[in-house]
Amino acid sequence: MSFNLRIVLVEPLYQGNVGSVARAMKNFSFSDLVLVNPCKLQNEARALASHAWDVLDGAKIVPSIEEAIEGADVVVATTGITGLKIDEHIRMPPYTPQELKEKFNGTNGTIAVLFGREDNGFTNEELKLSDMIVSIPTSDIYPIMNLSHATTIILYELSQIDAGEQQLAEGFDLKLLHEHIGELLDDIQYPEHKKEKTHLMFKRIFGRAQLMPREVQTLRGFFGRIQQLVK
Amino acid sequence: MSFNLRIVLVEPLYQGNVGSVARAMKNFSFSDLVLVNPCKLQNEARALASHAWDVLDGAKIVPSIEEAIEGADVVVATTGITGLKIDEHIRMPPYTPQELKEKFNGTNGTIAVLFGREDNGFTNEELKLSDMIVSIPTSDIYPIMNLSHATTIILYELSQIDAGEQQLAEGFDLKLLHEHIGELLDDIQYPEHKKEKTHLMFKRIFGRAQLMPREVQTLRGFFGRIQQLVK
């Protein structure tokens, strides 16, 4: 195992951006590119990919974010600063790209970083699929970055990561843990109007904490025991 | 910000790149753009500048690097990794963008950062006009970055000189949370021999996650509810 970065572009509208992202990926020695329902990729994408046709041609095209993040251990969504002001519980707390690098330094596993549409970013439902939020600190006056520029900054920061000994918990086990928490919130009759927020909060906290495999098992045992007692 | 960053593009060949650079500058709140003998700037430059027409229109056009760096206190030239292998005395030592940021933290004055031609970079004579060299750490296989991508990384690093701080939960509230978890482990008759390890695990996880004040309150509410039900 080693550190693998997957770049996921969600419904990119402009093929030039996709080509530019492929080029930037190759500049920083990454190649795992997944495109969710992309625009048509033709000559302009290839021209802007420059010498990174291998990355562009190797991109996996899928119809949903769920498929794009399959096999990833941690899912990170990028949002603009302006987005942070609405739906705080979904978008907080945001990490800077540098903090993301520090967080994953010395770990093994696959991190998928998601980039939203050029015009509309992500829906809230899409953002809930992520374990962590990263936001590039930009100007308040004009925070909207070009898609390939935003990607370049993430690639630049995360290319500085040294893979280490620490194995991240697998995405699949985390998914089971989160389902477990969902059930538990039902079992303890947690107030309906708070349920979703609290569930998401656990996802974010455990996402930030970068759980180790044994911790996930212990947490599941802990929650399982509570469930038994409550029932 | 206590310093002024000037971006100097030397004989850029593609107007799209100039427009993209203007946009990235505005994203990071910079506006001092100087172009040395640029290509024609027409519709494509304006399209890619997006909402940064003010930066593009405000760009100063000059016939020489000497004029472009007039009034700058420090001149930094960007070179690719490959360039470092030749003419070492001119190109060494290269700073990373991050080192550049650290270097200029807390200083006053104007730094001019020069970017060379998309195809041929700088001549040695031109490089000698710079006080420092910065080089973005890239792949050996394909180190040649798009001009606006390279500029974006420099802007990103140098804009970060005063990063903000996230409000963390107070130690006292965390302590209450951990006491709470300890009581809960008793209440649910968690196996005695595992109790201490599991308690510590929560401490580690929540420590790493750097909880926010509101999250601590929600967690305590959650655990309190379980306690009520279990008793």
Biggest interface, chains and residue tallies: A-B, 50 and 52 residues
| Biggest sheet statistics of chain A | 8 strands, parallel
Order of helices and strands of chain A: EHEHHEHEHEHEHEHEHHH
Mean pLDDT across all amino acids of chain A: 90
CATH architecture of the largest domain in chain A: 3-Layer(aba) Sandwich
So what's the oligomer here?
A: homodimer
Uncertain stretches of 5 or more adjacent residues of chain A: none
DSSP, total strands of chain A: 8
> What fold name goes in the CATH topology slot of the largest domain in chain A?
Alpha/beta knot
Helical run tally of chain A: 11
The CATH class of the largest domain in chain A, by name, is: Alpha Beta
- Outline of chain A, from the CA principal axes? globular
Q: Termini separation of chain A (Å)?
A: 40 Å
CATH superfamily of the largest domain in chain A: SPOUT methyltransferase, trefoil knot domain
Q: Tell me the radius of gyration of chain A.
A: 18 Å
Class per helix and strand makeup of chain A: alpha/beta
